[in-house]
Amino acid sequence: MAVVPPAQSHGGSFRQAARLLRILLGHHKRLFFTAVAGAAVFATCTVLSSVVLGKIADDLIVPRFENGSVARGKVALVLGTLIFIGLIRACGVVVRRTWAGRTSWRITESLTARVIDRIVAQPVPWHRRQSTGDLITRAGVDAEAATAVLGPLPYASSVVVLLVLSCTWMLIVDPVLGAAATAVFPVLLTLNVVYQRRVNHHFSTAQVELGNLSAAVHESFEGVHVVKAFGAERRETERLAVIAYRLRAARVETVRLRSVFEALLDGVPNVVNVLLLVGGAYRVRSGAMTVGDLLSFIYLFTLMVLPLRLIGYALSELPHSQAGWARLEQLLDEPLEADPALVLTRGPTNDVDIRDVWATHDAEREVLRGVTAHVSAGRTVAVVGATGAGKTTLLHLIAGLIPSSSGAITVPQGGTAIVFQEPFLLAGTVRENVTFGQHYSDDAVSDALAAAEASFVLELPDGLDTMVGERGVGLSGGQRQRIALARALVRAPAALLLDDTTSALDPATEAKVLSNLRQVLGETTVIAVASRPSTIALADDVLYLVDGAVVAHGTHDVLIESNEHYRQLMRAFEHDRESLDESAASDTSPDDAWSAS
Fold this sequence. Notes:
The chain is α/β, with parallel strands linked by helices.
């Protein structure tokens, strides 16, 4: 999904920058323009302070040397004016910084919320094609990058005001020296523009590679057990190193360009300052300007060097923000895909009806081929088939997680709940994992846990408030499955879908769970993918799939007698189960067996 944006023309780059600022400033305008107002006050007071400084030289310092004294009232007036302007200038700085920060934070928050809302709105098929790490980067790092330009922008606006006022004042005081000083500013602005153009591509590349690195690291950490089990640490290290090298190369190039840019931005004003001082001395000697005018002139020009750097900083952040916004916009502009759950027909009963359903994987391989079946309310149907027969795909279709190519599925109006073969648990408490954001009483949660044979939770020190760790790492596979089952049961669904949910349970616990389900579900329709013969035998009916098609639908006993392929599959299941049990027994040490007893 992460693609390096194509290089833009200079005109296109400026249009994109203007468009980005327009979009960003469309959020929380009042906060931004308050910061700009504070910046304008700061700029105006800066120019006034230089004027008052010239007055101090001409009206206080020079008369003191020439006449030996200066009126105290004049000293108090001039110095009081300077202090007053300084206080107003300080207030402008506080307003500018405070509201600029609030603007940046609030807009980042708004962009992040938009991205998260868009991600949440997309259906499951869309999420299956995405990289989790890349999505996290877009909602976090990219949103912050997109608003990076907002921090220096109010200060940059004050620099524009400062430039206009300063150039006007310097031209009024001394047209010759003023023209020489103001001629430098276009040169410095040109340096900023050239730098922005040169660094734009490298910022875009770095932002994309940062997303790629985040996605790769997230994927590697998610599969750490697989990586270590297959000794692939070196391979993963090399893969991440390649991405990190590309990121480093892009970042190093931006630093190199920035160092050259800042050296020029430092050097040019310093050289010009020396020339202004020399030229100003000749102008004072000729009587074209006073000592105070020259002092004010040099002071103001020196003060403007740092603000000009802020314009450069704002322009240098523009490529960074454009790169971040480009990735956000790519995600926000993706059309919302149709939610497969909305295509399902809602029936008045708890029946589940499947009519001539076809499904493909990646629009190429057919997974289900013309599946037709009817499950009456309150019945339990086991979906059976060899690996790759389409069992899980059928359950996902009924749950509305994926779309079908054609056909129709009718599900109960009361909704469905699915329990996956690989249960997902949050890193929070047992209660949070069962309720999953809904409000249920402790009695309802406890009843659901009891039906799922997960009452062991109530015996833990913190009971329902026990932390299970990330992905339920503190629990065994069977315990995680039972908590996931309780999550579905507490909702009292009209149809319950089980994807080999009891595969991690021992036969005795599995039998208890299935018995509990029969007692508590009532009219709930149960469709369960199963691979254990004992589980299949407890179902009311069996739906037998071969290569994505229904080849038989009836009771387990009838299919055993009438279908040779089904009979062979049951023998294979039984043999695999016995092999697993023998393997588990051989892996148990004498100490473990003693502890178990």
